[in-house]
TrEMBL record:
GO terms for molecular function: phosphate acetyltransferase activity. In the N-terminal section; belongs to the CobB/CobQ family. In the C-terminal section; belongs to the phosphate acetyltransferase and butyryltransferase family. Homohexamer. Gene3D superfamilies: 3.40.50.10950, HprK N-terminal domain-like (3.40.1390.20), Isocitrate/Isopropylmalate dehydrogenase-like (3.40.50.10750), P-loop containing nucleotide triphosphate hydrolases (3.40.50.300). This is Phosphate acetyltransferase. It comes from Aureibaculum flavum. The keyword Transcription regulation does not apply. Keywords: Acyltransferase, Cytoplasm, Transferase. Its main location: cytoplasm. Its EC number is 2.3.1.8. Residues 215-326 form the DRTGG domain. It is an enzyme of class 2 (transferase). PANTHER family: PHOSPHATE ACETYLTRANSFERASE (PTHR43356:SF3). Pfam families: AAA_26, DRTGG, PTA_PTB.
């Protein structure tokens, strides 16, 4: 079975990084464990690392050492090639590749960059490596500086060369083409290449082509005087501040880099003020030339500004510095999350991801990894967008999570709260959230307030709730949000960042109520361990469930597990395994297990069973040798809240696992609770899960 793909380019500066990052994101959503390998890398300074290896390994959290990810530096290849040691080169590359293959389900192999000395031999080496590793190839060429015929001819020759050497080409990609020519080039590729060869055309992206201030600092050996927090700003343009301020301000453009001698206090202060002015475009940074530094009163003034972009001091005259900045070739690096995210979005928009994945992934990986789980969740949410209401609309974490959610475009969002307060919060947090894309509702000022209050009165009047009481309750964001879900004005609700669990779910229990046939509302956590995702229930709702409630929790948890792509193998946990234990607690678990078998005979379930027997195959063989669950459980049902809550927190803290939840199950419509200590990522993940739950109603 195919376990890897080779990315090869026909020349330097092809934008290969975009393809590597996009492919890695795609593969991690399809395959349990993905490795990364570059047979040959550029030489790097002592104490430094190859930028692209460092970026891929750190951003995607690939569990590899840096040294494992490459075989040779460029100078080593040239030296061995001059000594006619081609066989030695290939032998070592194969050995290093096989060492990675043994540990991973799939490997992304990235070819050379065609930069510097030795570029003339790289084409043959790339073909030779791909052939000897026996893996298919994706070919990339840049459209910069080429006519249509040149670009198509270049890609076709590359395809022919690899094919002649027995290397299967899966796809060819034309990168960095003018946007207006995308469809024309796509048509030409499909006309000139065999039908089975996939093709992709990616337009030139100006943002990805811009260097960051950090890259400029490194190239110029500059010193950061102010604004280091914004060092990853992109320099969209640059200009020299050599004229009077009133004239220079008219030349500022979006994300301009201001270059000026260090003694031009007027230009420095004018640029910094323009950056925070609503009347001028944002500026990426200020470069001070000549080694000149602002005087102390100027420094003091800068320190007092509300926001300071990077101010960099460099040696050298303005003319030479400007030329050096213009010659910088921007790269994508680990800290620049914006460029990485943009690369992924560009890849997914312009590459036939599903068709490519189908050809690449020819095997079924065991289990599901956290990265795959989260990737699949996002894809499912995107496939059928739902409307989620967030009652705690003024909470900082909720607003930050909302920004992430809107960037992915996975859900529709309504925030509850005062619009002015939310706008002020967004300004304070420097969150650029387009309020035209979300709904903001202040419950008491809502046009639906009277209708919602009347509905609540009708639903709860048998509990002695009058209309005035219903209005008081409806002013509460938890009641208003729950009523939106009940009335179909939202598909689900996520709350609890600033409220207790009881406050969050009480309205849902009062009028959304449970599904038909479900006797108890319960919860699960998705525990994202290093190499798999398991389900823990119930760790948040029911303190001391009866046998009947435990059985209901197990069945609901199995349904939730299956809905999220995890095959349910249920372990009913207790302090003993099988029939050996006695006592009220173990008997309750034993009875619950029997009830599940009666109600859902198709489910794989074992109980009572100890945790070690549920997860360790060696222990399972000695304690429950004939069990189809022991040693491979995926759903863990705890006997009580005390055990479940402490266990999930212990596993989370000790193994650094990501715990997503609690995810409520059993309600007629999805409402989910957050911990008051939740992070932005917790909120993001819970909203995505809630949206997926809503797809089932």
């Amino acid at each position: 079975m195919n376990k890897a793909v080779y990315i090869a380019t026909t020349e330097a500066k092809s934008g290969k990084s975009i393809i590597s990052i996009g492919l890695m994101q795609m593969l991690l959503g399809k395959t349990a464990k993905v490795g990364y390998f570059r047979p040959i890398i550029d030489d790097y300074k002592s104490g430094k690392k190859d930028n692209h290896i460092d970026t891929i390994l750190s951003y995607f959290d690939i569990q590899m050492n840096y040294e494992e990810a490459f075989a040779f530096t460029r100078s080593e290849i040239i030296h061995k090639n001059n000594q006619n040691k081609d066989d030695e080169i290939i032998t070592k590359i194969i050995e290093k590749y096989k060492a990675i293959e043994d540990r991973f389900d799939f490997i992304l192999v990235e070819g050379t960059d065609f930069s510097g000395e030795g570029a003339i031999i790289e084409w043959d080496i790339n073909v030779l490596v791909a052939k000897n590793l026996g893996i298919p190839t994706i070919l990339i060429s840049t459209g910069v500086g080429k006519s249509l015929d040149d670009l198509i001819g270049n890609l076709y020759m590359a395809y022919d060369s690899f094919k002649d050497k027995g290397v299967e080409v899966l796809m060819v990609i034309a990168n960095k083409v003018q946007p207006e020519n995308v469809q024309l080039i796509q048509n030409e590729l499909q006309k000139n290449l065999p039908e089975k060869i996939l093709s992709g055309v990616i337009p030139l992206n100006k943002s990805l082509a811009n260097p960051t201030v950090k890259e400029i600092v490194e190239e110029l050996n500059g010193k950061v005087l102010f604004g280091e927090a914004y060092i990853n700003n992109e320099a969209g343009a640059f200009s020299v501040g050599a004229m009077q301020l009133r004239n220079y301000l008219t030349h500022l453009k979006e994300n301009s880099l201001v270059i000026t001698p260090g003694d031009r206090a007027d230009i420095i202060l004018g640029a910094l003020q323009a950056n925070i002015s609503a009347n001028y475009p944002p500026i990426s940074g200020v470069i001070l030339t000549g080694g000149l530094l602002p005087e102390e009163p100027i420094n003091k003034l800068i320190e007092g500004l509300s926001e300071v972009i990077p101010v960099i001091s460099v040696q050298g005259g303005t003319y030479s510095i400007t030329n050096r900045i213009g010659a910088i070739q921007p790269k994508i690096y680990a800290e620049n999350v914006n460029k990485i995210t943009a690369s992924i979005q560009v890849f997914e928009k312009h590459i036939p991801v599903d068709a490519l994945a189908e050809r690449l992934i020819t095997f079924k990986a065991n289990g599901i990894t956290p990265r795959m789980f989260q990737y699949n969740m996002l894809k499912r949410a995107l496939s059928n967008k739902k409307h989620i209401v967030l009652p705690e609309g003024t909470d900082d974490r909720v607003l930050l999570a909302t920004k992430q959610l809107m960037d992915t475009d996975a859900v529709h969002i309504t925030l509850l709260g005062d619009k002015t307060e939310i706008e002020n919060k967004l300004t304070q947090l420097d969150i650029s959230l387009d309020l035209h894309k979300i709904n903001i509702i202040n419950p008491e000022e809502s046009e639906r307030f009277e209708d919602y209050s009347q509905t609540l009165y009708e639903l709860r009047k048998h509990k002695n709730v009058n209309l005035a009481m219903a209005k008081d309750l409806m002013a509460d964001v938890s009641y208003y949000g729950s009523m939106m879900v009940y009335k179909g004005d939202a598909d689900g609700m996520v709350s609890g960042a600033a409220h207790t669990t009881q406050h969050t779910i009480r309205p849902a229990l009062q009028f959304i109520k449970t599904k038909p046939g479900v006797s108890v509302v319960s919860s699960v956590f998705f525990m994202c361990l290093e190499d798999r995702v398991t389900v823990y229930g119930d760790c948040a709702i029911n303190p001391n469930p009866t046998a009947e409630q435990l059985a209901a929790i197990a069945i609901s948890s199995a349904e939730t597990s299956l809905a999220f792509g995890i095959e349910p193998k249920i372990a009913m946990l207790s302090y003993s395994s099988g029939s050996s234990g006695v006592g009220e607690d173990v008997d309750r678990v034993r009875k619950a297990t029997e009830l599940v078998k009666e109600m859902s005979p198709n489910l794989k379930i074992e109980g009572p069973i100890q945790y070690d027997a549920a997860v360790d195959m060696n222990v399972a063989k000695s304690k429950l040798p004939n069990s189809e669950v022991a040693g491979q459980a995926t759903v863990f049902i705890f006997p009580d809240l005390n055990t479940g809550n402490n266990t999930y927190k212990a596993v989370q803290r000790e193994t650094k696992a990501l715990a997503i939840g609690p995810v409520l199950q059993g309600l007629n419509k999805p409402v989910n609770d957050l911990s008051r200590g939740c992070t932005v990522d917790d909120i993001y993940n819970t909203v995505i899960i809630t949206a997926i739950q809503a797809q089932g109603f």
